[in-house]
Amino acid sequence: KSNFDTALLNTDIPVETIKSYIDTYSKMKDKNIRCGLLFHGIPGTGKTEFARYLAELSGYEHITLRVSDFLSPYVGETEQNIADIFRMAEEKNTVLIFDEADSLLLDRKGARYSWEVTHVNEFLAQLDSYKGIFIATTNFVKNFDMAAMRRFDWKVEFKALEKDKIYKAFNCFFPNINFNDYKNKIYSLKNITAGDIAVLSSKFKFIDKPAAKSIIEQAEIEMKYKENHTQKSVGF
C-alpha cells in the first residue's frame, strides 16, 4: 500500500476532486470511454508520484512510460510501438502514465521534421480510441500541442508548497527533528517543493541526529541554487 501523503500536494484543483473522478471511473461497469488527466507544474511537486498513487487507488496495475520506451530510429517502428503499448494497456486494464510527455507531444507547429508530426498524430489517434485511465505529466505545459491538450478531461497544475505545508513537509521528512525554533526561516523559503525537501533528507541520511539549524541552512543553500538556475533558464 502506498504511503504517499497527498497533504504535501499544492494543486489548483482539489486533490479530493481528482480522487473522486478516478474512483467513480474505476467503479463503472462499462468503461467504454477514456479517463484522461494532465498533471503539469514545476519539478518536484509530486506529479508522477500522485499519478502512481491514483493508479493504486483505481485498483489497477500501472505502467510508467517515457518517450525512450517506444522511440525507434526505424521508419514506422515508433508508430507500431505506440500502438502496441496502448493495445496491451487496454487488454490488461493497466493505467498508463506518460512521464515527461512534452518530450513527444510538442506543438506540431514547431516541428522541424515530418516524423515528429507523424509520431504525435499516431499517439493522439491511439489515445482517442483508448478505453482506460491515461495520465500525462509535464514540467513544460506551454510547449504542449493544443490538440493533445484537448484529450485531457482535467488539467491540474502542481505548485510549490504553501507555508503551512512547508512546515509539515519538513516534519514528514525529518520526523525526529524539532523545527519549532525555525518556523520563520522555514516559512521564508520561496518556491520550495516536497521534492526539494526529499533531496535535503537524502543529503542528511548518513548523519546521526543532524541539527535543525544545519538542515535549514542547507535548505537555504539549495534554494539559492534553484533560484540561480531558474534565472539562467529565462535568460537573466
TrEMBL record:
Pfam families: AAA (PF00004). One of its GO terms (molecular function) is ATP binding. The keyword Membrane does not apply. The keyword ATP-binding applies. CDD domains: RecA-like_protease. Keywords: ATP-binding, Nucleotide-binding. This is ATP-binding protein.
